[in-house]
Write a structure and sequence with these properties.
single chain; about 450 residues; alpha/beta; Rossmann fold; Ribosomal Protein S5, domain 2; 3 domains; nine-stranded mixed sheet; four-stranded mixed sheet; 10 helices; about 25% strand
Length: about 450
Amino acid sequence: MKRPSTLYRCANCGHSEPKWLGRCPECGQWNTLKETAANPRVSKGEIKGESYSLPIVAIDPALGTRISSGNAELNRVLGGGFMRGSAILVGGEPGIGKSTLLLQVCATMETKGRVLYVSGEESPAQIRMRADRVGALKENLEVLCSSDLDRIMGAFEAVKPVLTVVDSIQTVYSPEAGVVPGTANQIKYCTQEMTEWAKSHDSIIVFIAHVTKEGLIAGPKAAEHIVDAVLAFEQAEGDLRALRASKNRFGSTEELGLYRMGEKGLAELSDPSGVLLVRREGDLPPGVAVAIVHEGSRILLVEIQALTVSAKAGLTRVYSDRIDASRVARIAAVIEKQAGLKLSDRDIYINVAGGVRLTEPGVDLALAAALFSARSDNPMPKACALAGELSLAGEVRPIRQMARRDKAARTLGFSLILGPAEQPSGKGGAPKVTAPDWTAVSSLKAMIHALWGRV
């Protein structure tokens, strides 16, 4: 039986029918079925050639070597650079600097091959003006301004790029998936097609993605499952930018990349020590504590600010967008239970100076100190920094790299360092108890006593 040469696909949901219908039976929209060329499946009798498996010992490990992006902070987040044949999705709010960052990477990429920048949002003149401003002019960098997937795939075959940047994936469309760009079916289909080409040619492809008002990458989750790494580009505070990985098949998701946005683009912040601290003359105000945070392979000292006020209408709330609100509520409950300081009738506001989002468990002790200081109206001692995880029983649990944290804090002039008495063992044994260089505290009550001389 002859296969149909055309199909009718819904521009809204991608559903296909062999003949035209006024209403899509899948999504119920009217007049959305458009005529497109059919993509016939290959039957078993038409397969040319055969597929062979490969013994794992016969695979050359050199194929897994990384290519440096020429950007140390991006290399840090990716785990050492780009992997050949990988696909990366970068999301962030409008105007935060995603296009600027990737255009700079196109120019600094350590490769002799060609690099392709595909834009569906800007004209060639606009891209050239930005490249002039940020110093991203390079002979092997080529630009294509198109949203048509067929034209983009044609450019792939002609250029054979080592690195491709697609800005943005929401603007790319294919007649095979409908005529409206940005739909869930379009994003999934176009991402799959370009990723398959990149993997089959040992090329690297980076997709720039829009985000929703909640900060999540717009489009189907299937697109995030297709790619190898998902990076979030966030605005911390002012001109400070942070790059994180929420998914990384080739490295850790704990690394943090920091940048400053300036007139000439994004500048790497390779040594952020002290950048996130607030320098003050005289005594500290109540509710301020310094946390020693271990983010990936680096140590950061960050100021945590807490404020407690009487709850309105008997309904208490926690306002915290840089530290998880449930963690703040848990620490407040531990303080109320173990120290007898009532917080259940208070609204709690938590802020992190510099706007960096903190997820590491070692921030618990500094958060507890800031909350206790704010509620009791007692300021913290000068030159004091804290690190430690707090259990529900009020115990200070051991954390990673406490010796490095102590050294980093003392380098910045902090003389009173509070941390756990125990250090984690190397291979799953019991925590080892040694004489630490910092002031060791075993519980929340011991921390309060060490700081204020009372419980």
